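Hello Y.,

Per our agreement to keep a running log of every chain we model this quarter, I'm adding this entry. I've kept the format consistent with earlier entries: sequence first, then predicted structure.
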Amino acid sequence: MIETILFYSLGTVLLGSGLLVITRTNPLASAIAMVVAFGALAGVYGLLSAGLLAVLQVLVYAGGIMVLMVFVIMLLDLRAKDLESMKGKWTTALLCLLGCLGVAGTPFWMGALSGLPSAKPALKEGFGGLASLGETIFASHLFPFEMLSMLLLAAVVGALVLSKKKL
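Predicted structure for the entry above:
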């Protein structure tokens, strides 16, 4: 039962911080919300008994990728007047957040009201371990893994080009 409560709590934090990532006008505040989302996702990996994935999530994404993102944000050198055109309505963001909280909480409350015990999903042997992670990334998902690295490189180069006023 405690795992179910933790899962839905982490899922709610993940959805809420994901909404904050896309609704904040300040890119640095959005990056901080993304760190919270990465931390919540690492918690979900931990609940699935995938300790290696949880540690890699914190080290690689919350550490390395977010340092890269903050570096790119600082290179953009945005001023307050540049951010005025990005202002959003807080009521729309609040309604979206409440909707996500309702959708995320529905299975939990339905299970709690019916009194059904929650079953942990059956995981194959070695899930989240080094061998299974390496096999998955470098055998069956090598192309998407390499394309992700190319996408990150293109994003950094694009941010550098945008930050230059004169080329």
